[in-house]
Amino acid sequence: MAETESPIRLGIVGCANIARKVARAINLAPNSVLHAIGSRSIEKAKQFATVNGFPESVKIYGNYEQVLEDPFVDAVYMPLPTSLHVHWAVMAAKKGKHLLIEKPTALDVGELDRILETCESNGVQFMDGSMWLHHPRTVKMKQMLFDSKLLGDVNYVYSTSTTAASPEFMENDIRVKPKLDALGALGDIGWYCLGAVLWAKNYQLPTVVTALPDVTKNSNGVIISCSASIQYRQPDGTKTDAIIHCSFLCNTSMDLAITGSRGTINLNDFIIPYQESSASFEFTLGAKFVELHIGWNVKPEKIVVASELPQEALMVQEFARLVEGIKTYGFLPDRKWPEISRKTQLLLDAVKKSVDLGCKPVYF
User: Fold this and answer.
1) Amino acid 1: pLDDT
2) PANTHER family of this UniProt entry (predicted)?
């Protein structure tokens, strides 16, 4: 794809490992360029630049504030520990920097509201780093779910995000430290599961959320494995049930199953596709058992969707497109993305509250 004449200039605030992936995405997206990086020390920032082979044109700063003070930075990507989000995100928005922030967006919805209110009052775009929402496969599945309604009414959603964390991770990673990322596995990888349930319900909030009594915490009280039941109950009697599971204690899984009244969608790599150039899912319509229940009347249809860019580059491209519209044409920030983040945070908060209450139901 041809590069735009005036790409959006991004600064990275914090040199977490995920920032390597997003820095690559910034360079792959046709309408953005990496302008600056900032870390807690100039030595760490220089090392990050060297390891990733950044050109000399990239500004290197020894603290976060210098990135926010740079007048040439249009927007920032912020992969900081969650406990630091509200301070630095609010500061970025006050300085007019558009904000692409890692998930979980905040420790709770109160903190997120402070960020979103500052973004809105300063006219800056907000988006969280849920990359899978930007993949063409997700767009295709959405068309089948909501536009053509091939699945009928969504009755059941099942979503997992798990990984077998190493002993070193379990001892030292910020995601198991209560002062850095107190939400643990629920905030880190559970964010995707909760987001997938909301996505499958077109961002309708549920009726009741209940953490299941399989919660595992580390010695510091941080959740490292949990499950939750999410229920939708409508006055007309229609209902949807969902189960999510997130864990640092078992083999990698990224399953998503959506079952409707007429069909089912299944995929096992919904967060990170098996490969960058394309992704697939299985679709089954009108499945029944044959006589004697010795088989099925249909086999799943495999649908493959090509992707011109990796999903993280598509995310950056969409973010930069919105920033360009605000910067050049005076458009208002797109409210869709902050609304998605806020509903996901609300659902996360409900699961966490249920855990804290001893797995009692939390009602919306």
Assistant:
1) 42
2) NAD(P)-BINDING ROSSMANN-FOLD SUPERFAMILY PROTEIN (PTHR46368:SF5), PTHR46368
